[in-house]
Every structure is written in structure tokens, then in C-alpha cells.
Amino acid sequence: MSLLELTPAGLYCKQADIYVDPWRSVNRAVITHAHADHSKWGMKHYLAHHMSREVMKLRLGNDISLETVDYNSPKQINGVKLSLHPAGHIPGSSQVRLEYKGQVVVVSGDYKLEDDGLSTVFEAVKCHEFVSECTFGLPIYKWESQGYIFNSINNWWKRNASKEITSVIFGYSLGKAQRILKHLDQNIGPVYAHGAIWNTNQALKSNGLNLPDIPRVTQELPKSAYKGALIIAPPSAMGTAWMKKFSPYRTAICSGWMNIRGARRRRSADIGFVLSDHADWEGLIKAIKATEAEKVYLTHGSTAVFGRYLEEVEKIQAVELETLFEGENGSETEG
């Protein structure tokens, strides 16, 4: 890469002496978003979008050295022009644009193209080289519209509520949970949040994000309070003793992996909704073509298959990079 090199600590820009989403301790880290595989503890100084500020402090500690900036607000670092641009993945998610002596590289982090009504919409940034995820870089991944998915979620909840059954829906604490909350029909019944999600909501709201105000699940509330309600919980709560207070209940998982037959059964949920905060096959191709990049570096996901497609069909040079980013893996890595 003209401006970046892959080191044992992560993607490094020597000219500016900065790393993008490093996985080992470094002096200066530029963070694309606050998910745990991109924003790790132990950096001497962090730079991120201002919407990531309170969540990063919640997760990494209030005492971290953190500078935040707006989108499209360039900084000069040792002759390198650095700016952040919307990635559309979760609130505060950013693409990192680096420009030096006429060469432009963009590190996308994770991204999606559909407007989720919560995150700043993805912005295609012209560049010579583009570093892209390809979590769902196979043709089988094609998302239905968000409106269709949330209509299905609300109908599922409504059916359960009519039988006084609690609905428990699992999604990452950061990004997915807030997206679910934003689009629920709260006329159906009360909504509660797992403590990890409630804490994340408070951090995002203190940063200025507009979210419905819902209570957290507590031991003090009687079991009857949850009858017909919808509970938003992280995947880590699935199958734990914490769930007993909601019985009888039905469970749902929101993930792009629900696109695969059998994924729901393997995760022991009653139903799966195909809702991802990552671009699908067509979204990845559209985003990459919009950058007009001459060379694309693929960091995580179906790198071999997707890279071969880019080279053979789109005639774009593609290179696989071995990183420690994980994408949407169904655990609580992303929230």
C-alpha cells in the first residue's frame, strides 16, 4: 500500500505515525468505530468520531486519552491529510481517509449502505486504494429492505403479546440493539433492555443520539411486568439463568447469518431475522465501485471468493489482508 502497511500491531501509516484500528498497544490510534474488534484498550491516544466518545469511555475507561472530530473535518499530521467519513455501520462509525502527496487511501472499517435511520448514511469516498471488509462477500447474501424486516419483527412480537408471551430479541449491544429499538412499534407493549444495552443507550444519548427512553430489566420488577413485553438483549445472555424471569417466552436473533438455513436452529432460537449492520454482496460491490479505487484490500470475511470476483469480473485488483477483525460473528464481539 502506498500509505499503509500491515504490521503485527495493525494497519500503520508511517508518514503520520498512526495506526488504524490496531489490535496491539500503540502510541496513536485512529478508530473507525467502537466495536470491540476495532476499538481495543491500551492505546496511548485515540482519535475517533465524536459520536463514539461516550461509548468508548464506557468500554475502555473514562481516563483514556481521546480526541474526537466531526465527519469531513480534515487534520494535518506530518504532512498527511486525515479525515473521517460516514460508514453507515453504527452511530459514529467512520471511514478513515488518508492523503499524502496526491495519493489517497481509505480504510472503511465496517460499513453498510442502507439508511438505518440511526447512523449517518454511508458516503462513497473517491480514492486510489480502498481497504474493505467483506463479512458477507458471497452472492447468497442479499438483504431484504429494513422496512420489511421490522414489519416482520413487530408482527412476531404482536402475536406473542396476544398470548401474554414475552418476546426476547438478541442483537449486539452497540448498533444492532439501538437499531431494533428505533423501529419497534411500542404501541404493541412495553420494551425493556438488558443492562449492557441500557448502559450503551445512556452513553449514546449523552452523546446526542435520539433514542426512545426504555427501562432496564431489574430484579425488583415483578415477573408480571414482562408479560407480552419485548426484551432487547445481547447474544451473551442467550440460554443463561437471566432468561428465567421472562418465562413463558419466545426468542429471536437478528443477524445477517440468519440468511443461512439452519443458523437459527444451531443457535437455539425460535426465529431468526436477517438484519445486518454490514453490506451484503451487492452493497459491497456498489460501495467499492463508487470509490473508483484501482486497488482493494480485503480484511475480513469471504476474502478469497470476493477478491476473485473483483479481479475476474470487475477488473479491480484485490489483495487479501490477514487482520484480527471479526465482523458479525454472532458473539458479543461487536457489542
UniProtKB/TrEMBL annotation:
Classification via InterPro entries: MBL, RibonucZ/Hydroxyglut_hydro, Xnuc_lig_assoc
Coiled-coil region list: none
MF-aspect GO terms: RNA endonuclease activity
Protein name (Swiss-Prot/TrEMBL): mRNA 3-end processing factor
